[in-house]
Amino acid sequence: MGIDRFVDEQLHPERIDDSAVTSRLAEMTTLRLSSRDIARQFEEPLMEARRERRRADAAAGNVTPGDANDQPKPVDPALQQQANRPVVEMSEQKVLRAIYSPRQLQEVLTDFWFNHFNVDERKGPVRFMLTEYERDAIRPHVLGKFRDLLGATAKSPAMLFYLDNWMSADPNGPHPEMGRPSARGPFGPRRPMPVAPRPQNANAPRGLNENYGRELMELHTLGVDGGYTQHDVTEVARAFTGWTIEQPRQGGGYRFEARLHDPGKKVVLGHTIDAGGVRDGEQVLDLLARHPATARFIATKLVRRFVSDAPPESLVDRAAARFQKTDGDLREVMRTILTSPEFLATEAYRAKVKTPFEFVVSAARTSSADIDDARLLVRTIQQLGMPLYQCQPPTGYKDTADAWVNTGALVGRMNFALALANGRMAPHVPADPQALSDILLGGDVSASTQATIAKAGNPSQMMALTLGSPEFQRR
Amino acid sequence: MLSRRVFLKNGSCALVSLGFAPSFLARTASAQGRQGGSTRAKQLIAIFQRGAVDGLNMIVPYADGEYYRARPSIAIARPGADSGAIDLDGFFGLNPRLRPLKPFWDSRALAIVHACGSPDATRSHFDAQDYMESATPGVKGTSDGWLNRYLQARRSEQASPFRAVSLTPQLPRALSGTAPALAMSQLAQFGIRGGAANEASFEAQYAAAADRILNGTGRDAFDAMKMLKSADPAKYQPENGADYPRSPFGQALQQIAQLAKADVGLEIAFAELGGWDTHVNQGAAQGQLATRLDDFARGLAALVTDLGSRMADIVVLTMSEFGRAVSENGNRGTDHGHGNAMLAMGGGIRGGRVYGTWPGLAVDRRYDRRDLAVTTDFRDVFGEIVVRHMGVVNPGPIFPGYATSAGRFPGLFA
Question: Fewer C-beta neighbours within 10 Å, C or N terminus of chain A?
Fold first, then answer.
């Protein structure tokens, strides 16, 4: 298949048969559940057990002193494990899709855009919003319009919670709801504030929260040098007041709460935002999605991911121009990048050091291992410093070599190569001589790497020395 | 830069006795030579109490009358009473389970900063740890941690791979960033687990790699493995009668001491311990919190004892994301609060004193009328250590968005 046809096919993942990987995921039933169902089935039993224990502890009086290793008693480990299942299945599906899905571009882009709109599953209820977030807010839009992707993340409970916008309110509110003076929830009149998960703190901060407003511009759209000011941050935050979550602890969805919304006029990047209500935030998203700084920022990040840590200016220019011309059509931006001479240039070959995720996945593919249970691979990726869905800062993981090349991680990579080749990651790993020779013949391999592999005593060792080699750490 | 061969010839430090000299150690030695004077780099051992330790029951303000009114069932009794606090200065006392630290207070090796914390109001563990480790309270987009920015501020192509080591399964946020830092649960696990032949083959591959980044890092990795093998972690014997607890925390500290003594170029070490989130039945002189404090204090005491005279070049600093509410809750526990206490030991620290302005525990003196107010920004403690102990001249890039200045330092150093 010619490169153009391959690119065209990858740009239309819906035309590629994906049944091989979907059958591998069939038993992971949480992947198809809503946040609400995940909360109900996996969180609620654990919460109930914790409440029960708290009641019992409080009734029992002082705990008896223990030795130095005495930790508070955990609730039933089986319940805890059950509650972890949705995140575990998400991690496994990410690895299995990356290894086995023929829709390679879609998988790479889902990883890229999740990382761009990063959330950390360890923050409060995000762990049971994660499945829906990737499946419904990210994946469907990675080859669509940037504005749709941006809008889907802005209204996702995962992002609303992770960057605190769900609790951001006009400090001068709450306001009476216009036209609906007696708005009622399902259980009577609504309280003046959303149902806040403030289990211990009656005085948790209320008022304007700028986190989302800041990261929306710095990380999601304009970039840190995108020309906005602290004043713009505050104005954007005001525009998004009232974008909240219906019952976050129960996996509820997005809700616009007019009484928390700041009704005043806002000025963002010199543009007046005065549409009122939910339209304020929508207009800000329109403005940011179409801003030239956004086109450039997104183009730079994509070129850095697909071509080189030092993105060639010429290609960034063309990708940014395409972004603007097509109103942020990500399929067209990707076409520009993937069919560019820069992408195919010899300088781009092995220009990138693989991230731990990329390394583990590419090693598994090369070894032709039949990975049925991906949990060991998930753990390896974590040990190599890149725990899936657990990147704490909203910046996401870095996409440059300096973040991933250090002595500890390198030793970890060599050990993983040995473990995989010796069958300790999957029941049986047949060494694939074709894959080996592709690596050996497919590019510049040092005489030393060739010599050590040639001296290997058996196919497993050959495989280990190939996957752990310096050459294999790059793509 | 000295080559390995030159270094071997000059053989200027203890490594000769090990029969080999890793190349990065040669660089470390030469780098230290350039600093002049001191033969050893200054070191910082940072310890994170994850989960928000109750600072008011750790360093007890027993002379603040509000303390006993607010905590009828969990207060630590006054000094002199049964299981009472150990008096420090007539106002504060140590939780009795911190007794192992008292000798260091008496010898002025231990200082305390109280009512210390973040200007940010969050009571979320997640966000508050994030802010403390990035040292940018209220700003989430900071991609790296403050300890990593320290490493970056002194970035050197010649740095030892053991320059920054966290004895944790994952690299903590505080050490994450573009400067290399190692995370490992056990020193002994740092090696190729497939026999000598594989190790030799990989070493040959990386030694010959034309790839500059992978070549350099690879060589450092194999040097580091040999170094650790020579140091033989399994046979380590603590000195000066130090007795580490058998807990994970105690074992982490013991390995930090081992690295510090091995002269492998360690500058930053990190350890952590959890179990501080005492919402229910936290106990007083006995119970949950006391049990955690016992491990904490015995670990710290063993570490400082073991390091002995080396402590002149080392500061040990403890931190926790926020303190706990002044008043106990309905479950004989404490809920998430604000200000907290940090412990600092070693180096040139003027110990035997509690630093910071005490805001008082009366309701109208509290933060949000419920928590200990913050009178010392935690960045001023970090900043003072970075400047006065580690010798950084311009701490600005380590604390972006914050004007650290000597005027704000708590004054831990003479």
Answer: N
pLDDT digits (tens, 9 = 90+) for B52-91: 999 999 999 999 999 999 999 999 999 999 999 999 999 9
Compute the C-alpha angle A256/A262/A268, nearest 5°. 100
User: What span, in angstroms and rounded, lies between the C-alpha atoms of A386 and B6?
Assistant: 38
Is B118 in the same domain as B175?
A: yes
Q: Which two tokens stand for residue A324?
A: 């603007």
CB B359 within 8 A of CB B117: no
CB contact under 8 A, B143 and A408: no
CA-wise closest residue to A9 among A247, A230, A339, A293: A339
Q: Report the 10 Å Cβ neighbour count for B108.
A: 12
In this predicted structure, which of A62-76, A96-110, A460-474 has the lowest mean pLDDT? A62-76
DSSP code, position B45: E
- Determine the distance from the C-alpha atom of residue A430 to the mean position of all C-alpha atoms in its chain, rounded to a whole number: 32
The CA distance from B162 to A275, in Å, is 57
DSSP A29: G
State which residues form the domain around A342.
292-348
Give me A284's structure tokens.
């800000």
Question: Environment class of residue B63 by beta-carbon count within 10 Å: exposed (0-12), middle (13-18) or buried (19+)?
Answer: middle
The answer to whether residue A418 neighbours chain B at the CB level (below 8 Å) is: yes
Q: Given pLDDT bands bounded at 50, 70 and 90, which one contains residue B124? A: confident
- CA-nearest of A143, A111, A147, A146 to A8 is A143
Domain final residue, candidates A161, A190, A223: A161
Contact B157, B187 (CB under 8 A): no
The C-alpha atoms of residue A295 and residue A456 are separated, in whole angstroms, by 50
B47: enclosing H helix or E strand: strand B43-49
**What residues of A are in contact with residue B100 (Cβ under 8 Å)?**
none
Among all residues of chain B, which has the CA nearest to that of A382? B170
Cross-chain CB nearest to A63 (options B197, B287, B370): B287
Number of domains in chain B: 2
CB contact set of B247 (below 8 Å; sequence gap of 6+): A68, A69, B273, B295, B299
User: CB distance from A425 to chain B under 8 Å?
Assistant: no
- Could you read off the pLDDT of B176-226 as tens digits, one per residue? 988 889 888 888 878 998 888 999 999 999 999 988 889 988 998 998 888
Please, what is the angle between helix A375-383 and helix A356-367, to 10°?
140
Whether B201 is covered by a domain: the verdict is no
B175/B293 same-domain check? yes
Cα distances (Å, whole numbers) of residue A337 to A285, A306, A307, B295, B384: 25, 8, 8, 56, 48
Q: Are B149 and B385 in contact (CB under 8 A)?
A: no
Residue B154 belongs to a domain with what CATH number? 3.40.720.10
- Position A61, amino acid: G
Task: Tell me how far apart the alpha carbons of residues B154 and B41 are, in angstroms, rounded to a whole number.
Answer: 12
Interface predicted TM-score (ipTM) of this complex, two decimals:
0.85
Cα B409 to Cα B20, B33, B358, B382, B396: the distances in Å are 43, 30, 16, 9, 14
Token pair, residue B394, equals: 């311009």
- CB-based contact (8 Å) between A182 and chain B? no
pTM of the model: 0.84
Same domain, B5 and B64: no
Helix, strand, coil tally for chain A in percent (to 5) = 55, 5, 40
Are the CB atoms for B349 and B150 separated by under 8 Å? no
CA A82 and chain centroid, separation: 22
How many C-beta atoms lie closer than 10 Å to residue A78's C-beta?
A: 10
